[in-house]
Amino acid sequence: MKKYFAESELIINQDRSIFHLHLKPEQLADRVILVGDPGRVALVASHFDKKECEVSNREFTTITGVYRGKRITVLSTGIGCDNIDIVVNELDALANIDFRTREECKLLRQLTLVRIGTCGGLQPDTPVGTFIASEKSIGFDGLLNFYAGRNDVCDLAFEEAFTRHMNWNQQLCAPYVIDADAELLDCIASIDMVRGVTIACGGFFGPQGRELRIPLADSQQNEKIESFEYNGYRITNFEMESSALAGLARLMGHKAMTCCMVIANRLAKGANTNYKNSINGLIERVLERI
Ligand code: R1P
Ligand code: URA
C-alpha cells in the first residue's frame, strides 16, 4: 500500500509550491548546493551561464540555473540544524512525492546535496582560509535521534569512543556520528581540501565552547575535543548543519556532504570577518566538481 501524506503533514501552498521553500517540483535540479547565508546564493548563481528561476521565502532563497551544461539549484538554509530538517525534508518531498496524489512517486529520484559553509578550525593545520571537507560529522544537535534507522546509518563504535573520551554529560542529547557520501566526497574533496571530522552544534556560543558572560557547563570541552583521536581521525572543525544534512540524506537515499572555509581558528584565537570574497574559491571548486 502506498503511503498517503495528509494536508497537515505535507503542507503544499495554493500555487503548488512546498510550504517553506515556496519551490515547485519542476524547479528543483538533481544537483543542489546549500549555503547558510541567503547572500551567498547570488554569489554562487553569478557563475551560472543561465538562470531559470529565483524564489524566496523567509531565509530560504533559491536559484536554479545551468553551469557549464549542469542544471544546478542553489538554496540558502539560514543558520542551524532545525532549518536543515525543513530544507532536506522539503527537497525530498519535491523530488519523491507526487503533489497531485500526495503519494510517494513510483520512481524515486536521488539528489546530490553539497553544503558550502563557513566554520571554526580546531587544529593547528586548519588556519583561517583552510577548506575542510567533512568526511564524518558528529551531531551535537540531536536531530537524527528523532528518526527511525538512526542506529543503522551511524558509526556507533565512534560514538562510544567519543562519549567516553568526553565523559559525556547525560543532560545533553546523545551525539551521533555520520559519514558523508563516500563517492561524492571523492569527487569534491581534492588535495586542496583537508578531510576532517566536523562537529555540528546546536549553537554558535556555548555549544562551541565560546564563553562570553555566562560560564560554560564544561570549561574543558574544547580541549577534550581537540585531543580526541580515534582510528586515525581527529576533530577538525565546528559548524552547525553538516550532521543533520548527512544524516537525513543517508536515511532518504540521497548523496550529501559539506565543505566549509575556516573563518575563525579557535586555537590561534584569530578570525576573518572579511571572508565573503575568499569563499568564492570554494564555490568555484564545488561548481566544477559536483
Ligand atoms: C554561524 O555563523 C553560521 O555559519 C556557518 C555555521 O554552520 C552557521 O550556519 O555556516 P554558514 O556560513 O553556511 O551559515
Ligand atoms: N561557523 C561556526 O559555526 N563556527 C565558527 O566558529 C565559524 C563559523
UniProtKB/TrEMBL annotation:
CDD domains: UP_TbUP-like
Domain Nucleoside phosphorylase: start-end pairs: 31-274
Catalytic activity field: uridine + phosphate = alpha-D-ribose 1-phosphate + uracil
GO biological process: purine nucleoside catabolic process
An annotated GO cellular component: cytosol
One Gene Ontology MF term: purine-nucleoside phosphorylase activity
Enzyme class: transferase
EC number in record: 2.4.2.3
Name of the protein this chain belongs to: Uridine phosphorylase
